[in-house]
Amino acid sequence: MNVQLDELRPVPSAAEQAEAQRQLELRQQRQLAMSDTRRAHVLDAARRVFAERGVEGASIREIARAAGYTAGALYSYFDSKEAIYAALLAESLDRLQADVAAARAPRGQAARALAAKAQAWFGFYARNPRDLDLGFYLVNGLAPRGLTHALDRALNERLMDALRPCEVALEEMGLPPDAAARENAALFAHGMGLLLLQHTGRIKLFGQGAEALFVQYVERLVERFDPATAAGSTKQRDLFAE
Length: 242
Description:
By secondary structure, this protein is mostly helical. It is 71% helix and 0% strand. The protein has 10 helices and no strands. The longest helix is centred in the first third of the chain and has 44 residues, at 14-57. It is extended and about 80 Å long.
């Protein structure tokens, strides 16, 4: 059998194979980091465009221009402007969940846990009005237009995950699950109403502060279902203390 010399290839050693694999993984990591950076840049640009024009008024071309890319380049990351909007909302909900998870209360003190977790989500939206806009489709005419039912449901579930600790605390205070769910919904509705009043500046009509009113609401909620705790350690001045 004739063998051409150029058909002969040296067999790499185990060390050489390991080094080649390491270099490949490093290249992949650099490419992934670059992709993540570009994706984050696109989302930042989209956030600005949506804030100015809403979802229906925005376009892929405008978002691309704001990001400094061509419209075709954006399709490497997102297949539609609605997908970009959903990604922004998902990222917002991740940060909301992180804030709620970081809010701590002494073990076994359900009233303090309720206050801490409620203040966490209220404070998140008070500090980040753009996230409030995203979460309630306020840049999209109060409706999740363009989002599929499955995607809308998934995003709603992520929001509920951030609110569920308050419901758990209410159950630990002795409420049955259905009552805890109702009170948690009322708590969220009250907080969102205050945030919208603050966000639009209408709270000034009443000469009140949204945060103080929210503190008062949570305090009254505790008094209704945990009078002993409310009469003891849970006073307004330290309701949200660490």
